[in-house]
Structure formats: C-alpha cells, structure tokens
Design brief:
The chain has one domain (7-163). Helices cover 91% and strands 0% of the residues. The protein has helices at 9-142, 148-163. It is rod-shaped.
C-alpha cells in the first residue's frame, strides 16, 4: 500500500496540509457565513415571533380586561334597572292599595249611611205597620173594628216604653 510507505510520508503530509488549508478557507469564506446567516435569520424570526406573541398576549389581556369591565358595567346597569323597576312597582302597588282602601272606606261609609237611612225609614214606618197589625189582630179576635186614634195612641205608648 502506497499510503504506508515511509518515503511518501512527507509529500502526503504536505498535500494534506494544503488540502486542509484550502478546505478551511473555503469553509471560512463560503460555508460558515451561509450557516451563520441561516442561524441569524432563524434567531431573528424566533425573536420576532416571541415579540409578536408577547404583543398579542398583551392585546388579549387588554381585550379581556375591557370585556370584564363592560360586563361589570352591564351587570351594574341591569341591577340598577331592576332596583328602579322594583321600587317603581312597589310605589305603584302602594298607591293602588291606598286608592283601593280609600274606595272601600267610601263604599263602607255609603253602605253604613244607607243602612242607617233604611233603619230610620223602618223605624219611622214601624208605628204604622204595628198599628195596622194590631187593628187586623183585634178585628179577627174580637170581630169589631177598633178606634184608629186610640189604637195609634196605644201603639205609640208601647213603642215609647220599649225605646226608653
């Protein structure tokens, strides 16, 4: 094998060094800058993606905070509207109840006045009715017609005794 001959070692080492230096220079000048550029581009893209993600996260948090604030305002407005409606309905109910109580009180007073008037009419007509009944009973029992003036005086006397 020619690689293992001692007489060809020095030229082989020379060409190894020359080839190594050429390959090193090619890698340093062409290959490594391209790889470095790709790594830098990837790093920039990752950094941009992270910055965009942070920006989107901040926007999402701001949107969430705005949504929660809007929701809280809507809840407060709804509670205020419910309270206002409840208060208004309670006031209307109280007013209707007062009006109904007033109307019932007027009706009761009217009914009491009508009852009192009917009682007065009945009491004022009672002597005539009692006189008529007494006349009818006396005629049937005795068969004679009593004196209307005497009968009326007797009925009035009895009614006056009962009233006192």
């Amino acid at each position: 094998m020619p690689q293992l001959e001692v007489s060809t070692f020095v030229p082989q080492l020379f060409w190894l060094a020359v080839t190594f230096v050429i390959l090193y220079l090619l890698m340093k000048g062409i290959g490594l800058p391209r790889v470095g550029g790709a790594i830098d581009a990837r790093r920039r893209r990752i950094d941009d993606d992270l910055a965009r993600a942070a920006q989107l996260k901040a926007e999402a948090e701001a949107a969430l905070a705005a949504h929660q604030e809007t929701l809280a305002k809507a809840r407060a407005e709804a509670q205020a509207a419910v309270k206002e409606t409840t208060d208004r309905m309670a006031a209307e109910t109280a007013e209707r109840q007062r009006q109904l109580s007033d109307a019932l009180a007027r009706q009761i007073a009217d009914a009491e006045r009508q009852i009192a008037a009917a009682k007065e009419r009945a009491l004022s007509e009672m002597p005539a009715v009692v006189t008529e009944v007494a006349r009818s009973v006396t005629e049937k029992v005795t068969g004679l017609a009593p004196d209307p003036a005497g009968l009326a005086a007797a009925v009035n006397h009895v009614l006056a005794e009962r009233a006192s």
